[in-house]
Amino acid sequence: MNAQFPAPAGTGAVPQRPVVLIGPMAAGKSFLALHMAKFYGYDFVDADQLIVSRHGVIAEIFARHGEKYFRDLEADTIAEVLRDPDHADAIFSVGGGAPMTPSVREALRHELVAYLEVDAATVLPRIRGSRSRPMLRPDPEQRWQELYEARRGCYEELADIVLDGTGDRPVAEIAAELHERITRLRTTPDTTQEVPS
């Protein structure tokens, strides 16, 4: 849990920080973030889309420069968005491997983080035969399982909110839960702070 997040005691203030959406590849993070933007008025920012718009297709970045180069681009992009006041009310979707980069993980400890939790049965139909995700090569199903097991603990550690994205749960239902929980966290006084006597 990111203890810094709730509003300061007695202020009722709404922290103007983006909500960072994490989770494994193909969990549906970008789809959920878009739904939040359309129906609840949040700004929508997607780290992978920003990287593609500036540097080209991610699979080609991996092929030309390797994963380390991509992770550095990704970390710089995430730091830039988190610093930008124009994205203060965004739902900010980041790639499944982003929290594994130490600088990103440290930055997310100070943000409101929502983890979209899924399972293999939910995701595998979406990635079967995929050629567009370099981290899932050569066997998308096996690699997804391996990566999820390696990253799951990090997702759980960073999460202030855990959303059940398994099965056929409608995105509208997940979005409604996320909006309600964001609202509650942003209006809950931080009782960990001392009140002057």
Automatic annotation (TrEMBL):
CDD domains in the record: SK
Catalysed transformations (reactions): shikimate + ATP = 3-phosphoshikimate + ADP + H(+)
Gene Ontology molecular functions: ATP binding; magnesium ion binding; shikimate kinase activity
GO biological process, one term: aromatic amino acid family biosynthetic process
Top-level taxonomic group: Bacteria
Major place of residence: cytoplasm
Pathway assignment: Metabolic intermediate biosynthesis; chorismate biosynthesis; chorismate from D-erythrose 4-phosphate and phosphoenolpyruvate: step 5/7
Cofactor note (record): Binds 1 Mg(2+) ion per subunit.
UniProt keyword terms in alphabetical order: Amino-acid biosynthesis, Aromatic amino acid biosynthesis, ATP-binding, Cytoplasm, Kinase, Magnesium, Metal-binding, Nucleotide-binding, Transferase
GO CC entries: cytosol
EC code: 2.7.1.71
Binding residues annotated for Mg(2+), in chain numbering: S30
Kinase as UniProt keyword: yes
Cofactor(s), names only, from the UniProt record: Mg(2+)
Group of enzyme by EC: transferase
Annotated compartments: Cytoplasm
Binding residue positions for ATP: A26, A27, G28, K29, S30, F31, R133, R169
Binding site for substrate: D48, R71, G96, R151
Role, per record: Catalyzes the specific phosphorylation of the 3-hydroxyl group of shikimic acid using ATP as a cosubstrate.
HAMAP family: Shikimate_kinase
Record family assignment: Belongs to the shikimate kinase family.
Assembly behavior: Monomer.
Protein name: Shikimate kinase
Species assigned in the record: Kocuria flava
Source organism phylogeny: Bacteria, Bacillati, Actinomycetota, Actinomycetes, Micrococcales
